[in-house]
Design brief:
Elements: E1 2-11, E2 14-23, E3 34-39, E4 48-50, H1 52-61, E5 64-65, H2 67-76
Parallel strand pairs: 1-5
Antiparallel strand pairs: 1-2, 2-3, 3-4
Length: about 80
């Protein structure tokens, strides 16, 4: 199964997450199928940036978003 999930990056106490499509059996920071955007929880202003067309395309293909990504997508209006 393919999932849309967050991939941690950044430094200690300054998280930065990439929104990626990965095989659900891979590690959190494992091999990526496609990168869709990013999420910066600490930054003021635009925190969640994704390519809406790519997200919609992957959802149509059957990719399952994780709980966190589902909340962020709902908040963004996708």
């Amino acid at each position: 199964m393919v999932k849309i999930r967050l991939q941690r990056a950044g430094t200690k106490k300054k998280p930065f997450y990439k929104v990626v499509v990965v095989d659900s059996r891979k590690r959190r920071d494992g091999a990526v199928i496609e990168s869709l955007g990013h999420y910066q929880p600490i930054v003021k202003g635009e925190q969640f940036v994704v390519d809406k067309e790519k997200v919609a395309e992957w959802l149509k293909k059957g990719a399952q978003p994780t709980e966190t990504i589902a909340k962020l997508l709902k908040k963004a209006g996708i």
